[in-house]
Amino acid sequence: MEKAVIAPYEQERRPSRVNSRQHPLLRAALAFGLLVISGYTGLYTAYTTFNTSTSLAKVPINAEQIIQKCVNLNAIPAPTADFHAREESDRYVPGTKATLIKNATIWTGNVDGLEIILSGDLLLDKGIIQAVGKVPKDALSAYGRDHLEVLDANGSWVSPGIVDLHSHLGDYSSPKLRGSDDTNSRKGLVQPWLRSLDSLNTHDDAYQLSIAGGVTTVVVLPGSANAIGGQAFVIKLRPTEERSPSSMLLEPPFTFNGSGIEEVLPPRWRQLKQACGENPSRVYSGTRMDTIWAYRQGYEEARKLKVKQDAYCEKAVTGQWDSLGDFPEDLQWEALVDVLRGKVKIQNHCYEAVDLDGIVRLTNEFKFPIAAFHHAHETYLVPDLLKKAYGHTPAVALFATSARYKRESYRGSEFAPRILADNGIQVVMKSDHPVLNSRFLMYEAQQAHYFGLADNLALASVTSTPAKIMGQEHRIGYIRKGYDADVVLWDSHPLAIGATPKQVFIDGVAQLKTPFVMPKSDALQRAPETPDFEEETKAALKYDGLPPLEPKESVSDVVIFQNFDSLFLDMGDGVEQIFAAEDYVGEPQIAIVQNGKLTCIGTSEVCSKNFNVNSRTINLHGGSLAPGLLSYGSPLGLVHITGEESTQDGEVFDSLTGKIPSILGGDSAVIRAVDGLQFTTRDALLAYRSGVTTGITAPCSSGLLAGLSTAFNTGAAHKLIKGAVMQNEVALHVSLSLSFPVSVSTQIATLRTLLSGGAKGELGVQIAKVLRGQIPLVIGVHSADIMASLIQLKTEVEKEYGSVIRMTFTGASEAHILAKQIGAAGVGVIISPARSFPYFWDMRRILPGPPLTQHSAVSTLLANNVTVGVGVNFDESWAVRNTRLDVSWGVQAALEAGGEVSKAEAIALASSNLEKLLGLKTGTVSSNLVATTGGTILDFESKVVAVASAKRGAVDLF
Ligand SMILES: *[C@@H]1O[C@H](CO)[C@@H](O)[C@H](O)[C@H]1NC(C)=O
Ligand SMILES: *[C@@H]1O[C@H](CO)[C@@H](O)[C@H](O)[C@H]1NC(C)=O
Ligand SMILES: *[C@@H]1O[C@H](CO)[C@@H](O)[C@H](O)[C@H]1NC(C)=O
Ligand SMILES: *[C@@H]1O[C@H](CO)[C@@H](O)[C@H](O)[C@H]1NC(C)=O
Q1: Which CATH class is domain 629-957?
Q2: Using the 8-state DSSP alphabet, how is residue 639 labeled?
Q3: Boundaries of each Amidohydrolase-related domain copy (predicted)?
Q4: Whole-prediction pTM value?
């Protein structure tokens, strides 16, 4: 890499313009007509003396500036030399009181994230951290009582603010409206001249939500539709007095608000978004070959311009002023020239080996480094390739478990963070907000930790590592004296499930006005002890990212489970905890399963007639037995790869906006999901291994009427196996939305017509079942206004027919607004996504829960006697495997409701409640039993080791 011209620079407190400041050597050179430039551009050393009497006349009047510009060209971005002596942040908000956080457990990020100050104080003032650990008494006495806020942390964990290396917050705004979708330009493959700052919406609903999750700084990247999508900008999320996008920026390059302005030394880092693979190919109807050629063309433009500039400067610094002309510049290409001069952090969306290889070759052809590969699902398979990148090995910015949504991510592995770290590669967890809601970015780090990334690296992956990769590690990402006062006070260890900020400071300003804090158990005050995934990690590599997911063995003989600490069962009236080791004294309990069916629970003596000496014994090491979970809300079992049409069942016709072929029966056709089931999708098998034993899936539809859902065993090999389909037809599914191409009133009118005798043929038969209460009508709906209309419609129809309709709302982001009425109407609710987010207008009135509101949607509905189920957290089937953790997050959020939600009630949210809400035959839940080691199915400490299925007559062992 090219080096800075002459280092170190002597800096003033704030860098000043070139004309008022020169390098002393340059000053001397100009004064004596003698110019010595050492190491200029790293390519040559020039030593020129020229005859003052003859040459002076030719020297242009701005020679000094030209030479300074040339000297500066290759200066590498850095903080000013006296940066760490600062006493006030450039982002300090005058009038902000100093804050003393007393008695905190501080994770500083120092020593590779291994330093923890067990009991220390933090002094925040003037936008920076003034002291860490022991705060000197005299530092405090300087403040009057009125100028110091004191916050007693009572030993709570404190971490640096979360840093998100990959966000579209503000550019891809929430709620999504046509007027604010500003992520992707469609005007060309290579557009380094675009800037995400120009799209930054200051009214995005996500700012407050993400802050409430502890996020303080994000890189706002242009989208990935282009090979070079444009320049990215670093922002802090807090509101500013000026209320402008520009005032949110953190250390923007000096040229952000003017072109051709004089250089300031040292320069600041710039960020550039690049993307390869499917997205640019898709948007521009091209191929990977076209994309890489577009890159090479763009970089060749930049290279040529750089050569011209360097030639110009060579002449200038050697005094060849004759006909030198103007400095070669081009506003379109200057950002790429800066890439070639080593002044830009490239954030490169890139997934597969084929694309990573292409970019690594590109970096060596044009000689520039990549800061990080993002998404990067195959990087763990090719660490040695990454190490061949020009300059240095790129970091890798990942999702924890989001994968298989397109071919590029099909080989994604939950073990990637750990494997990359083992290879000495820096790992970042990122949100791609709003793809993942960055409020829960710490949850990504938690999952990476669960699957094997060391706790110090997991915490670093959302704080110090991204700060370093974006070039801001001199001021954010650590708890250090002199760093920005971006600090999160947590209600538990940040890697514990459900960790929620109690307070968030940005630039020393407390962001939560009246934070609602939940009590948390002592067990959550330390990092979870995660299970051993050594074998699975090795298999991911051995099988090139596609390890077999089927059970190792299926046992129909007697299996004895022993050494479990808890046992949950559905005895027909919801899930109950049958056994808790902490309340039990006596002989150890065992559970006997034969042909997949639970036959005895008790001491060995009590159950002795149920087994013999040859029976298989499984030691659960303090684990648990619990009913298998259910999942609703994704196309699980209908789709292998979301982005690939040829791998999925496909969409049904919509009778409201299109014509249904008459050969199918026209408007009276009803599609059954069971007819399209595909078994052994990787998402289903992973769900099975994660304790989700039953998938309930409706036909895929983007219109009003979807059809009949089905319930299937997620671990079955094919449909013809006994017990593979648990229930052919489950419920009738419709959806209503403001986003449909016909009016909401038309949608309601259609539903009214159908429910009032307007449905013929097969549809008439199914509607009749709904009217008799034989099957539920499951309605996908988010808007409270639409729900209100539906409740009225229900009353109308019930009056007309004298029957009770079983109605369930799914989605239901705004259901809490009508909690009382929903409860009174006897309507059930499946919250999906499990953690609401205002993706669209009709989802915007969410009840976010602590720390923003005391109550959450789940707790509010439960308090109003609504039967609540938790649906999948995204409408994609990769997310189903996370059900047990999502439920656990929901429970953490519901704790504040006063009455504690027990583990049994939590399990019910994703099992017996869903059974009831979707109208499954009772017994669906009780037919599967999941065995975990190390903890209950809801814990980060546990791992699923076996599933017993009564319907299939076997115990599957993993
Ligand atoms: C610390 O404990 C005190 C006294 O119980 C309480 O008022 C305060 O809110 C607690 N602080 C935090 C940050 O939880
Ligand atoms: C810090 O808080 C913890 C928990 O409340 C308490 O046990 C401990 O004594 C406190 N330490 C100091 C130094 O105040
Ligand atoms: C550009 O922004 C900087 C930093 O905020 C400010 O000092 C400067 O005055 C701005 N320049 C113009 C031309 O607005
Ligand atoms: C919920 O049910 C309980 C027990 O049946 C009852 O006491 C309570 O009033 C109900 N709450 C509401 C809001 O209907």
Answers
A1: alpha beta
A2: B
A3: 157-508
A4: 0.93
